[in-house]
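We close this part of the discussion by returning to an individual protein. Part of our work consisted of pairing the sequence of a single chain with a tokenised description of its backbone. The amino acid sequence and the backbone structure tokens for this protein are reproduced below.
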Amino acid sequence: MKIIENHSLKAFNTFGIDKKSRFFTQAGDLDSLKKSLLWAREKGLQVLILGGGSNVLLTQDFPGLVIKIELKGIQVIQETSDEIWVEVGAGENWHDWVLYALKHNWAGIENLSLIPGTVGASPMQNIGAYGVEIKEVFESLNALDRESLDIVSFDSEACQFGYRESIFKHELKDRYVITSVVFRLQKEPKINVEYGAIQETLKKNGVKDLTIQAVSDAVVEIRRSKLPDPREIGNAGSFFKNPTISHEQFKSLKTDFPSIPGYPVDSGVKVPAGWLIEQAGWKGKKFGEVGVHAKQALVLVNYGNGDGKAIQELAQKIQDSVLEKFGIQLSPEVNFI
């Protein structure tokens, strides 16, 4: 266990915010993770667990210990003629895991290509894109109890998945460190191209042979056309969740805003947050070193030397403006530190 003092976190968050942690360490195995947690406990320090840093906004220096999760490994643990169960270390890069599955022709996560972050964060957020959510391919996860230091297993029901939600963001927030995730994938692909943009991209590219690789390539092309590369412009992808409103409210809004898009879901109608933000006039706006991306209003960006507080303040102004114009409260997907 190597502890570094006053360590810059700029390289460990996709916004590229230059804040420091009082102490910093990397955990490449369970033993070093346990030792790091015990060390912080003995010193009475706060602990921040970092994966890919793609879902955090650093608004200040962190006064405790930051533990960067580097738990790696991909292992087949069970298979049948139709399905395969694969355990993946929490520190594996998410897109690298998708590429690994594609290489072995394991289907189920191709629609989730190019999502930033690590495997360990995927069930916390119940990440989703282009018609697929993690809960559809999730089997179980292992997590370290930060109090007892025991490993606990969670199945899908125990995770209480919701839209970009899980129990780890609420009742069990900061209680566990996810160490590995088991996915159940298909050997015989069930291609999901219901999302219109995928169909359009496949058609544009003249794809005749519909494979999971073709779907992944289409998703990557779509994401790259809409979302800035964090290596070039600091960002955390979609900053806000798409809000769900009642059928009655949607019907009322449709009267005032005939072009408002909406998609029926179990609890009402889901409205694209990006559309709301764009209609409120924020798309492409720049304020010093921070702003709203010119191609996708759902993405807030750091143009170089932006501060986390400035992005947080911009997010609040956007929320206030959307609430005033549409009566809809936007909720951030990003965690403020």
Observations:
- The mean pLDDT is 91.
- The CA atoms of residues 135 and 266 lie 16 Å apart.
